[in-house]
Specification:
The modification N6-acetyllysine is found at residue 142. It catalyses: D-threo-isocitrate + NADP(+) = 2-oxoglutarate + CO2 + NADPH. The chain is α/β, with parallel strands linked by helices. It has helices at residues 38-57, 72-78, 86-95, 114-121, 170-183, 208-223, 245-258, 267-278, 284-291, 300-321, 337-346, 358-371, 409-422, 425-440, 446-449, 462-471; strands spanning 15-17, 20-22, 28-32, 64-68, 97-100, 126-132, 148-154, 164-165, 186-187, 191-192, 201-202, 231-236, 264-266, 330-336, 353-356, 379-383, 388-392. It has a domain at 1-138 and 374-473: Isopropylmalate Dehydrogenase, CATH 3.40.718.10. 42% of the residues lie in helices and 15% in strands. Helix 1 runs parallel beside helix 16 (462-471) and helix 14 (425-440) packs across helix 16 (462-471). 43% of the residues are buried.
Length: 474
Amino acid sequence: MYEKLTPPTTGSKITFENGEPIVPDDPIIPFIRGDGTGIDLWPASQKVFDAAVQAAYGGKREINWFKVYAGDEACDKYGTYQYLPQDTLDAIKEYGVAIKGPLTTPVGGGIRSLNVALRQIFDLYACVRPCRYYTGTPSPHKSPEQLDVIIYRENTEDIYLGIEWREGNELGKKLIDYLNNELIPATPEHGKKQIRLDSGIGIKPISKTGSQRLVKRAIQNALRLPKHKQMVTLVHKGNIMKYTEGAFRDWGYELATTEFREECVTERESWILDNQERNPNLSIEENARKIDPGYDSLTPEKRAEICKEVESVLNSIGETHGKGQWKDKIMVNDRIADSIFQQIQTRPGEYSILATMNLNGDYLSDAAAAIVGGLGMGPGANIGDECAIFEATHGTAPKHAGLDRVNPGSLILSGVMMLEYMGWQEAADLIKKGLATAISNREVTYDLARLMEPPVEPPLKCSEFADAIIRNFS
């Protein structure tokens, strides 16, 4: 079956049903060590995973690890430019769930991103990035403990799909010529818009299918959270990109108010219901005026549209969501992308799950990670309906490779996500407890040690940090 791989002789496959994993007690899980510091990170992380599973289940459950290859290590084994061999793809497809260290991708040309390739090949449409604070982790933010969010980033569309042409490319020039002469309309206000002929050009596809399946996963996650955290915020730049990012927002609301009608209320619906509850004699127009402060300056057509919206909400969900019932529903709202960067710093407690598109999500997840301690503590998962890959979210840091000094926290916490995804919550909780206690005790690697007050000397090695986590399970 494989050219150069040998699967474990024991263990069983993870299967999927309706997008959810069916996990045996002895799953076979492929792992990619990763480039650069992966040589240090993976052994430390695997040690923690195995110790947690043993401590939690006493031998009744066990992970059977299956080494597969990608990145520089794959080229060493399979030959030049074999960064993502078919063996690896076949193994991940066969066993369903995998975990990986950081992989190298040259900037500006050469091979495309291996991370993006894996997401697209396996249709891993949901990039899930929890950002929570562990007490004692140094942070530049005044109150990092207030931020506790999960970012759902659509993984397969947007400009990351990679449909683009460099400046001067013949196909790119043809596309620019066609757009300029055939598709871009002239308007009385702005005249004829033109794309400069010396432009690189790319395409930004955002589909209803891709948007709604991402929002669906975000809402399903919200249903599992405590009541006070049951909120999903659609993050977009729809005020400018109305037919791509604006459509993402609209499709998200459509999904929430149809497939999850009983479980969800939109922010705007909550205003309408709350206004009516505070004053049962409020007229439709008075309610409309309250939810749109600029109501009186609008056109008659727009005012009629808002009144119709108010009437529709009261008639359709007044019985099921009114009289305060909406307060127990999942709140679905939306925020403009640039404002959310400010609000996760100034009003972090107001947010729980952020659902957004690919580019916004890439920026936002790294910014949120910085608030709670940086990418060294940021886990990540890429989840589809029949496959999931968990990964360290930072780079390869090749200058530190083999020195046993880097922080394995990102990869270890990604493993925690994997265990939770598998339903092995007891093992996941042990690791989170061990890691939190180690940091609180100032048992940390150099990246955290140098930022603590006073600085920790000497810091722990990568392998020693893993030992500290295990030691602090109990």
